[in-house]
C-alpha cells in the first residue's frame, strides 16, 4: 500500500482544494494533508471525496431486492412486505448468509460506501449460536474490505405491551442477559482498525422501553441505534400503550445523547422534530427503502435549520448506490416543499453540501474514524472517473453534482478503505466469484 496519495482535487472539511497530497500512516490513516504533489505519491485520476458512511443496513435483505412487487391489494404496506422478508430469512443457512452478506458489502463498496452500520437481527440462523452468526457478518465485511459497525439488535417482543414474538420472529428474540453477553463478547472479536460494536434496541414496539436503562448499564460506550416512528400504525400503538408518541416517550424517559442515532423518525411531529434538533442525536434517513415501503418523508430542511444532523442508510439494500440515496433524499424534500436545492447551504453546490454533511454525520453515528479527508481519519475515499462522458471536463464540484444528480454506471473509478484499494475501475475484484451462489439463493426464494 502506498503511503502517499496525490489528489488533483479533494473535498476537504472546508471545501474543495486543488493539488493536495494525503500522507498516510502504515495502518491507513491520514497523517497529514499537504499542498502540492510530493515525491513518491501515487496519482489518483479524478476528484477525491470522503467515502460515504452507510448508517443503517440490513444486509440479508439484499436477497429480496426486487422480489416484493406482487401487489397484496390496496392494503399493501410495510407490514405485508415484512412477511416476505421473514420468509427469505427463514430459508438462509449460516453459510448462505455469509456469502450473501459478503457480496452485498462488495456492492455497497462499489456504490461509494466505505463504512456500514449493520443493524443485525437474524441471530439464530438454523441451529447457530448468535455469536457465530454475528461473527459471519464481521467475516463477510472483512472479506469485502469494508469498515463495519456491527449493531446487534435486541428484539424481545412482538408489539407494545410485551406481546409474544410470532413464530417467524422467534429466531431474532433474545433476553436482556443474552443480548448484553453477545455485545460484550463481540468487543474482543473485532478488527480495531476497521470494526466497531454497538447496540440496537430494535424499536419501542419490540423492546419495552422501560428496560432500556438496564440494557445501557450492561454494555460499553458504543453507538446506540433504534428504529422509531417509521409507520403511522407504530405511532398509534405507542399512543394507546404509553399515552404519548414514540420519540416523545424516548426523549422523556431515556434522554438520548450523541451515542444515539434514530432511524427513520418519519412520522415525528413538529414538536418532536424541534426537540430532536436541539439535542446531539443523529437521525438516519433511508430514502430508497422509505420510498419503496411507502413510509413517508421526514422534514429534513426544518430539522437541519434547528441544528439537527442527518445521515443516510441503505436499509433494505434495494439500492446499493450512495449517490442514488443522497439524490432521493434531496428530491423527496423538493417534492414536499415545491422548491429546488432544498438542502444546500446558500452559495454551495448541492452535492458538496449533502455529501460532506452525510459522510461526517454518519461516521460520528457509527463511531468510525472516517467521513472526512483530514488528519486522524482513516483514508476511506472515493475517486470519480474524470473520463466519464457526463463528468469529463467539469470542475470538481460540478462533477460531484453530476455524479449524484445524473448518476450512471462507471462514474466511480476506485474506492479505498484505510488507503487500500478495494474497487478498481468501478468493480470489486471478488464480487463475480459469488454471483452464481447468490443467483441460486434468489432462484430458490422465487421457487418457494
Word description of this protein:
- Helix content is 35%, strand content 20%.
- The chain is built from 14 helices and 17 strands.
- Strands 6, 7, 8, 9 and 10 form a 5-stranded parallel beta sheet that branches. A 4-stranded mixed beta sheet has the order 3-2-1-4, with no helix packed on it. Strands 5-15-16-17 form a 4-stranded antiparallel beta sheet.
- The longest helix has 17 residues, at 94-110.
- The termini are far apart.
Task: Please summarize what this structure is.
The protein has 448 residues and is α/β, with parallel strands linked by helices. It has 14 helices and 17 strands.
Kindly list the characteristics that best describe this protein.
globular; 17 strands; TIM Barrel; Urease, subunit C, domain 1; alpha/beta; 4-stranded mixed sheet; 448 residues
Task: Enumerate the spans where pLDDT stays under 50 for 5 or more consecutive residues.
Answer: none
Coarse shape: globular
Rg of Cα set: 21 Å
Average pLDDT over all residues: 94
Tell me the distance between the termini: 46 Å
Structural class: alpha/beta
CATH-assigned fold name of the largest domain: TIM Barrel
- Largest β sheet strand count, sense and barrel closure: 5 strands, parallel
CATH architecture of the largest domain: Alpha-Beta Barrel
Number of domains: 2
Provide the CATH top-level class of the largest domain. Answer: Alpha Beta
Number of β-strand runs? 17
Number of helices: 14
CATH superfamily of the largest domain: Metal-dependent hydrolases
Percentage of residues assigned to helices: 25-40%
Q: Approximately what portion of the residues adopt beta-strand conformation? A: 15-25%
